[in-house]
Design a protein that fits this description.
Chains: A mainly alpha, B mainly alpha, C alpha+beta
CATH topology of chain C: mini-chromosome maintenance (MCM) complex, domain 2
Radius of gyration of chain C: 22 Å
CATH architecture of chain C: Sandwich
CATH class of chain A: Mainly Alpha
Number of strands of chain A: 0
Oligomer: heterotrimer
Number of helices of chain C: 2
Structural class of chain C: alpha+beta
Order of helices and strands of chain C: HEEEEEHEE
Number of domains of chain A: 1
Distance between the termini of chain A: 27 Å
Largest sheet of chain A: none
Distance between the termini of chain C: 71 Å
Shape of chain A: globular
Radius of gyration of chain A: 18 Å
Strand content of chain A: under 5%
Helix content of chain C: 10-25%
């Protein structure tokens, strides 16, 4: 259903198919942006190779208000599989780090957004996601690669994630406030909810 | 079987031969072999990240002393057991990285609707990469919006025909065309089998314990 | 556009406290990780205490069997006649040691000696 590519939609199913189609398109667009941002991030020089800014999580933050949980899951999967294909890490351990961190942070951000969304902006959501993602990655690093010594670098690693996630949150606030594209989708979504006209 | 899927299958058959034995000499040989495979299929080897991974994983593991002291630098002792564990983990990581590079080098087409969605994602990705220009100061969101809207509109226009939405960029076409199925020839199947055999042959040597470390 | 809402503030605060706590925890207290050091003449071996192990350390008479169990170190068996080292019992704190003179095996725990905890009686001869 979610993946419906039935383009010959006629009659009553036509509208529904079109809606599904446009959601699918939005997911693909945001997933593509995530891929683009991860290549941008790759080009930014970093002092420590395992340090992440998490730019590629921005589309997921934006997606929180646009998609349902299964759709967000799909977006996250596209992000991690897409990155795995571009970087060639799909079948390696690096993929576990990316998948673990992204899935955990998406779930936490979704929980914060749905439970506390009224009392929080994207800054809090982004920080919560980054902290959880970093902790999951540290745990994976502990068990797969480094052993317990990894916790010696945990504090700066988490601090870095904390700081960058604040900037990502601010950007998400600005983007959701100003973007025509985003607000257009939100507008249409609201219309769909109240079909009075 | 398609050419790109053949590499996935070959890679999946190689992985246990690499992961299931821990003789460092054999592991190093296998890593070099996997690097050669990946490079032969056009993937680049970046020496700096590999060196950084190798050194950081080994050093972090050396901190957990274990075994005979080989030498000491100040109060820091390099122990044999910790060195072996560190090298094992680092080689495993690097080897997996290259077997993975090799496996995706044929631009595999993932099956099903998820695969279709993934190709759509890559089309949009190519479009963003080719059309993105550094925006003027203070007009960042506007230029982002124009890229997003172009993608959305170009898609809905071509929606009915279900054709490729953004065909202007040659890169995009290339990216999608590359995943078209090319059947694997007998020669390819034989070569890939030889690669898999090499990995399992070295596995047996490593497992037999005739090599040190 | 930087409108901070109440839960934002709470999340920022919790994260800041967590990270500060981790910094203090990790770097301020001297590392309490004690290590086992075994020496035989010029050779030496080092192990962490957090993993249980059984070690066979070769001395002139044969292998001295040393166990690491629950952070404690003891000699299980020794090729010497006196077996004083086996009788010495368990050691766990930095500064404590066991020696097997006939097999020239010197076993000690290294690390930051916590003078408050150490009692003279703990040193096993």
């Amino acid at each position: 259903m979610l993946f419906s590519d039935n383009t010959a939609g006629i009659g009553s199913t036509g509208l529904k198919t079109k809606r599904t189609q446009s959601i699918i398109t939005h997911i693909a667009i945001l997933a593509a942006f995530s891929l683009f941002l991860s290549t941008v991030e790759y080009m930014i020089p970093k002092p420590v190779p395992f340090m992440r800014i998490g730019l590629a999580n921005l589309p997921i933050i934006i997606g929180l208000s646009l998609f349902s949980l299964p759709e967000l899951l799909l977006l996250t999967l596209l992000k991690i599989v897409g990155q795995g294909l571009v970087n060639g890490t799909l079948f390696s351990y690096i993929f576990l780090f990316s998948a673990g961190g992204s899935l955990a942070s998406m779930l936490v951000m979704y929980a914060v957004y749905t439970l506390l969304g009224r009392f929080t902006s994207y800054i809090g959501i982004s920080i919560a996601g980054a902290i959880v993602s970093n902790i999951v990655q540290l745990l994976l690093a502990h068990f797969i690669l480094f052993g317990s010594s990894i916790w010696m670098i945990a504090p700066p690693f988490l601090l870095m994630g904390f700081i960058t996630s604040i900037f990502l949150g601010i950007f998400a606030n600005v983007f959701t406030g100003k973007s025509r594209w985003y607000n257009g989708i939100i507008g249409r979504k609201e219309e769909g909810r109240h079909p009075d006209e | 079987m398609s050419k790109s899927n053949l590499r996935i299958v070959a890679g999946l058959l190689m992985i246990p031969a690499f992961l299931l034995q821990h003789n460092l000499v054999v592991m190093a040989a296998q890593v070099v072999f996997l690097m050669v495979l990946a490079v032969a299929k056009g993937r680049r080897i970046k020496p700096l990240p590999i060196t950084i991974i190798l050194i950081s994983v080994v050093v972090m593991n050396l901190l957990q002393v274990n075994g005979k002291v080989l030498f000491s630098i100040g109060t820091f002792s390099v122990t044999l057991g910790a060195l072996k564990i560190g090298l094992d983990k680092a080689l495993t990581l690097i080897g997996m990285l290259y077997v993975s590079q090799y496996m995706v080098s044929g631009k595999p087409k993932l099956p099903g609707r998820f695969g279709q969605l993934l190709s759509k994602q890559f089309l949009f990705f190519e479009y963003i990469v080719t059309s993105w220009k550094r925006p003027e100061r203070g007009r960042f969101i506007e230029s982002l919006d124009s890229v997003l809207e172009t993608m959305e509109n170009s898609y809905s226009e071509s929606e009915v025909s279900n054709s490729i939405p953004v065909t202007e960029s040659p890169g995009a076409v290339q990216a999608v065309r590359a995943v078209r199925t090319i059947r694997a020839g007998t020669l390819e199947i034989i070569t890939e089998s030889a690669f898999v055999l090499f990995m399992w042959g070295s596995f047996i040597i490593g497992f037999s314990g005739i090599l040190p470390w | 556009m930087i409108k901070i809402k109440p839960v934002d503030a709470v999340i920022i605060l919790i994260s800041a406290i967590l990270i500060t706590f981790l910094f203090v925890q990790t770097y301020s207290s001297p590392s309490d990780s004690a290590e086992l050091l075994v020496r035989v003449d010029e050779e030496s071996w080092r192990y962490t205490l957090d993993e249980d192990r059984i070690l066979f350390i070769p001395g002139p008479l044969g292998d001295t069997e040393i166990h690491i169990h629950d952070g404690e170190v003891f000699v299980e068996d020794s090729p010497c006649n006196s077996k004083i080292c086996v009788a010495a019992g368990k050691i766990r704190r930095p500064g404590q040691w066991i020696v097997c003179l006939p097999n020239r095996v010197f076993i000690s725990i290294e690390g930051v000696v916590d003078t408050g905890k150490e009692e003279v009686d703990d040193v096993v001869f």
